[in-house]
Write a structure and sequence with these properties.
- Four copies of one chain form a homotetramer.
- Chain A has 260 residues and is of the alpha+beta class.
- Chain A has two domains: 96 residues, Immunoglobulin-like; 154 residues, C8orf32 fold (Roll).
- Helix content of chain A is 17%, strand content 38%.
- The first copy, chain A, has four helices and twelve strands; from the N terminus they run E-E-E-E-H-H-E-H-E-H-E-E-E-E-E-E.
- In chain A, strands 1, 2, 3, 4, 11 and 12 form a six-stranded antiparallel sheet that branches.
- In chain A, helix 2 packs antiparallel against helix 4 and helix 3 crosses helix 4.
- Chain A is globular and about 55 Å long.
- The termini of chain A are close together.
- Chains in contact: A-B, A-C, B-D, C-D.
- At the C-D interface, strand 4 of C face strand 4 of D.
Chain lengths: 260, 260, 260, 260
């Protein structure tokens, strides 16, 4: 399946600022970037940082002034099997690769240890992928997708109690529950079909059966129609735009279409 | 300088449990493990996981029952220059290696973005290592080292307000302030001379001038007399003992001596 | 029913300190103090403050040094009907007395607004006292009473997620859920039969049908066997002992018996 | 001094809702309402609740549908002495009236106990009103008044670290510091000259020398030009508009002028 992706960012920069962008679809792990372009006009300085795990190359714009106008376009072939997560076995803790271990730990927005008792009681009848599927369904059926109710402070604890949020909040709760069951979990920022209204999207990824698998508790997207941008512990790691001073939002537009 | 290290852990395990230990001094980066031994009696299953960045090899004890009795002994040569942190230059953001970038982000115990205004106002007159030194001195002169006032929930925000804590709290505040100044910072668990009473210790590490440098805001230790165990975003990553079920503390003893 | 109550507090006071005690059973509202004595040895200065709502008279010990040794004994007749909370109607918001209104608001340990969506979804099929009874049962069946897992920082949000705690945590969750359903709720510190191990106890009180009614989500006590000490927004208001400097716990003993 | 006050609130109510308004200037304690009018069009049901301490009469609008359009106008004589807070003595804890005692306790947005060490160290050289004045100046000189950076979750802990906020945040920090010094402190919602842009305003009140005294750490207003609406533990108690379902902001306007 091919996804035709475009993202346009417009911000006003009251003073010169360093910016970090993570908006390019990654190459590898079930997806291939066939074509792509990234246009900034002419920033003073741009640097591309080769990333750990080959999943994302953050782009720095150094000391940019006036405006940021970024246009990203890509054609990405997604070749990801439609795995039934319920069939996947958990990896015993002592067999986890070292790179997966940190994703068992608590992170900025996912203080997962607090969820142990709830997870043990509510999901004890299933293991591995079946447990993950139950968690996903539990969240999807109980939460309401509402824009504007969460903010940069909102973590999995808040969202679990408030029973609402946007994609990042759903993913944070999913990650917290998975880690509380001792299954490594992380956040992926993605472009995906099915996101309504279209925007940058975030999903959880869980480590089962020797690999990472996307789980979207909002129910809006499927892995076969999703292109990964980058991954991290939670939203603190995968922001599409990080500004090292105050900047002002002007407009932003994301489009993801099937390219037949 | 050689450090003679011993650590003894005794826990009661009411039910079979998976344990992860991070108690071995790391090899490399200014330290060499000359001799070491680790004795558990005979656990059902032990696995050693080769770690990212070669800094720490977590050890898993799988399905251990009854008691944990671990004895670690090592002789470590520390060959770390006594760098004056004040002389070190900050690395421009767009020149940071990808592996250092995540250490700019907020983490479980270090929600650093909240500290921007304070850092900008209080430490604006200095840059790079000089700024770090001022932060370290600011913490050391204002905080009181008190055992028992912080717990597993206590983060940099609490400690900053409460002005007290133990080594991990000092390190969390140091890390939060450094990141708020856009200097990558992480936590290292260590064995060190000068810790009173002797115990596992934690210090901050900041990325300056192309390398990581230890900073101990408690003022108790110096890098030249410190052996690193492992590093991570904050205390969530570097626990010396992680149990995947309830366990009961019996006793614990750490000794670090100069070996002449 | 008569309750024979005794409470003994022993603390060490490293430096002179002001103390506030709230340990005397209140008079009125379904209970009558038949006999009581309170013995401190000879503190420098003791003041009794007539309290709002006639429910509790805080006692100040001014500038006490050395040790606190307090002995309280009382015989209290409890004459509280065994009301079936399920039969009680909610009071419409605009008919609430002014004194009950603040107990709709969020408080230190009960940030109740976050629970709106959960309460609306989970308990929508019942109103007034029937809703309260469902909440109480929901908590009792899902939470585990565990000493030592909560502390002075633990609020209803934490306890709701962690599904465990002691009496104050149960009461905080009960209060948060009630307020989220727009039913005024507060905390009462009490002496009660059934508390195991015997200690100071705390329960929720909800405003239904024109009066306050005790609800104990731990299921350990019943209103007919409970003597109220004082009431407040949450645990921040009803501590049995408040010290305005560091003091050290030595021993404490509470006994409540039926006096036939 | 006479203040001419007007407040206009316009909200859209997607479904029938109960509303509580606290927007009328109080009578007494240094201010006299000479004239006032409050116009809602014709709500289904309005109830006025006589309030505790005679300071505020909350108004309930029961089951209002469609829109809320409220117009409040008043002429208030303020006859409050320009007290120099630095001259006021603290009241010894055991001499505090019972009604002031709860304002020593932690509240929703003011977890004051955490500030003990900071307050003891930073303000130890002054007592009573002189200490309060130092706290006020400390906040005013270090904080930046910025709209839009705080929200309904923001408490004194956040604001203390972030060093910025709006009037309620300044007041919360002021209250937290005062309580940490064992001086009762509360929040007053007010109409005041000097608020720029004009809006509902909030200030701290501290209990010194036998009475409550306004302290505005933003430095924008003075007690002699301020009309109190109501008081409470913190912002959780003094909201000008509380809606018991979702409502939508349309417009709002507050005007306060000197009437010569």
């Amino acid at each position: 399946m091919k996804l035709k992706i475009s993202a346009s960012l417009n911000y006003r920069l009251p003073e010169p600022v360093d910016l970090m962008l993570q908006i390019e679809a990654a190459n590898g792990h079930g997806q291939h970037v066939l074509e792509s372009s990234l246009d900034f006009g002419a920033p003073d300085y741009m640097a591309r940082v080769p990333a750990a795990e080959g999943l994302c190359e953050p782009i720095w714009l150094h000391h940019v002034a006036g405006t940021l106008h970024a246009e990203y376009r890509a054609l990405v072939e997604v070749d990801r099997d439609a795995v039934d997560v319920r069939q996947l076995a958990a990896v015993p803790l002592h067999r986890l690769p070292a790179a997966a271990v940190p994703y068992l730990n608590e992170s900025r927005y996912c203080p997962s240890n607090k969820f142990h008792a709830f997870v043990e009681r509510r999901f004890r009848d299933h293991e591995g992928g079946a447990k993950i599927a139950r968690m996903r369904d539990w969240i999807e059926s109980r939460f309401t997708y509402v824009a504007g109710t969460s903010n940069v402070e909102t973590g999995a604890l808040d969202s679990f109690v408030e029973r609402r949020g946007v994609c990042r909040d759903y993913a944070h709760v999913m990650i917290a529950l998975a880690r509380a069951a001792h299954i490594p979990a992380r956040m992926a920022s993605v472009y995906a079909l099915g996101v309504d209204p279209q925007d940058f999207h975030a999903v959880a990824e869980v480590y089962l059966d020797g690999d990472w698998h996307m789980v979207d508790a909002t129910g809006m997207t499927s892995p076969a129609e999703t292109a990964r941008i980058c991954v991290g512990r939670d939203a603190a790691d995968v922001a599409f735009l990080t500004a090292y001073r105050e900047i002002a939002f002007v407009s932003q537009k994301v489009k993801v279409k099937r390219d037949d």
